Amino acid sequence: MELFVFNKKLILIRLFIVTYFFVSCKEQEHLCNKNTFFSYDLLREKEHLSIDPKQLEQLSDDQFLERIQYDYTKNCLSNKDSIAVVENDGYRINLYCVAIKNKWVSREKGAEDVLQYLKEYQNAKTAHGIFPRSFGRQSGEKIKGRIYGNFGQPYDVVGTAFFATSIQFIVRQFFDKNNPTENEIRTLCDRICNRIDWNFAYKEDRKCFTWFKNGADGKLFDGKELIGEMDETFFLQLLVLSSKQWKQNKEAYNNYVSKLFIDEQYGYRYFSTKEYNYKTSKQFTGIQVNNPEVLKLKDYPTAKLGYLVQSHIWFDLKGYRDSICNVNKMDYFQGTQNAIKAQIKYAQRNPGNNYLYGDVWGFYDTYSPVSEKWMVTGLPAEGDVDEGTISIASVISAIPFEPKASIKCLRTLYKEFKNEGIYNAHGFVMSVNTNNRKLANKPDTFFQPINVLSIENYRSGMLWKLAKKAPEYKESFQKAGLKFTINN
User: Fold this and answer.
1) 219 phi/psi in degrees, rounded to 5
2) Are residues 241 and 356 in the same domain?
3) Closest among 45, 75, 44, 49 to 62, alpha carbons compared
4) Is pTM beyond 0.85 here?
5) What is the model's pLDDT at position 13?
6) Which of 364, 254, 379 is nearest to 309 (CA)?
């Protein structure tokens, strides 16, 4: 009888263990499945990465930020497209370093995946090292019939710079172990970067780059000229300064920074984008301005945060000044910081009486849940009034510059709209309208990697630390005349 009771208890215990394991696996299903490379063994101690998306209020700020990073990284890396888009891969390849550092994935698995990316880009058919905007990962060639708007099938100068900067300053430094996989990673990083002829992409008569090169051999300059505005291409001017083939010395850099547009709102001065001067311009990506009086600078958030933050992903510009910074009495980090402060001040003044504005802010090109169309900063697709749509990506990208205000904004948005689904298995949605509570129910797949990297620089400074280990980093800063100023 005692043996029977003992066996019955043993069976119940085993049943409990099996049931617990099954339930536990179901709860962690989004952490690790057959389509992802994430390791359940590594993740089991991080419960904040598996709790229900509607229960994130209980997390500490650091756990909350890591959860955002993890969900975005999972969304970006779980399924790899058969077609490579160079501007997307240029950011996404950095995510492997973040995933390994945060112990979401093993170093061995991450290195294998990165090596595969590099082999695909090594085999791609380029124009003097400049990659096509998109190409087949297996063939390395442009995809027949796949075009990019009016540009057709261009060679992407900026996208190539995204990829080159990432592998030269981040990937090559991160994978520093002496083993066959990581040795090959470093070798390919150097080969890919060294074959890029930035002189071929340079428009000598205008002393600047253009976004694309076009034509069968890539000899035609196409896309906007990269000059006169602080945007996501500032990093390109730094990158080429340490390129082995570059012949123009400081000419491109000096011409770029000397023509920067300086904007000011609410007493905050910042380097800005001249083409979005709301006082005079009548062209906003096809949007007709019906009432220009409401577009006065004092009443609209004109700083395009998504443009301003991107160069800071790789380069730690805080405290470093060149001659243009000295003239304007601010470094490039402070300029971006001031632009964010101007947006926050606009939200606090809240001239349009939008719900939650003040603690909530964040204005950038995004998808409008109201008109269901793309909108440009401060200008909804349907007219001239700030409709109350917040770009969540812009808030996250501001974390390294204004962490307290950014995290408070994210927490406020999450608490207010969690039941509407503002945060799901893919992370935060792209945008939310605070007045009618509508969401853009799709992720911002381009900006998700940028957000992950911005958060990582705030949490650990990892990308900045890695970049500074590269010999090219110091060379670029020296040639640009960027010097650290103690009393900044």
Assistant:
1) -85, -15
2) no
3) 49
4) yes
5) 46
6) 364
